[in-house]
Amino acid sequence: MAFQPIVDVSQRRVVYYEALVRGVNGESAFSILNQVTDELMYRFDQACRVKAIELASELGMTERLSINFLPNAVYEPEACIQSTLDTSRRVGWPTERLNFEITETERVVDRAHMRNIIDSYRRMGFTTSLDDFGNGYANLDLLTDLRPDTLKIDRELVMGCDSNVRRQAILKSMVSLARTLGTQLVAEGVETREESRCLLALGISVQQGYYFARPQIGELPTVAPVRYD
């Protein structure tokens, strides 16, 4: 597992870390997931959760931990969460400091099942995020059925936003939408000071990307100071 910080630039602090799957030689999550068969997907999903919590505890993380999960690997939320709860109790990790990011949304055909997962996790004290919002299948229509706590804005909308008025207009409308729905926005893929400053001016203070730190395997990365002067 690798960890990447998610920063609230208005407060200049890390609010949580995302745990990311990596190969033993640093291979990407995409290359690893392509090797996981449908028959092994549930076991893989569970193993990633356990590993992320164990490693976060070993590293002394005090911030919230965000874990990606594959919705189709969750056949029944309360049953599938047991290994996560057992691991949290064993290492002393507070369950209220767990956030689950919904990935692989292009494979979700049962919206009722997904809504049940989110609602069940909320009852258990977890929070949830919808990843890659604004790109591909992670679009507005999902919000008619799903009620995630956080929407993670895809890099395609963030890239070059400081010099693109159309991107700025879209982002501004997303800020208004998120406020109406009571959902927090997180900008993904922030790579420059100018992008970060533009996002903050638009009202998106929680950000993630190489501008702050690259994912580090097996350790918590040092976060670069946020400077806009």
UniProtKB/TrEMBL annotation:
Highest taxon above the source species: Bacteria
Residues covered by the EAL domain: 1-229
A Pfam family of this chain: EAL
SUPFAM superfamilies noted in UniProt: EAL domain-like
Protein name, UniProt field: EAL domain-containing protein
Natural source organism: Vreelandella piezotolerans
Lineage per the UniProt record: Bacteria, Pseudomonadati, Pseudomonadota, Gammaproteobacteria, Oceanospirillales
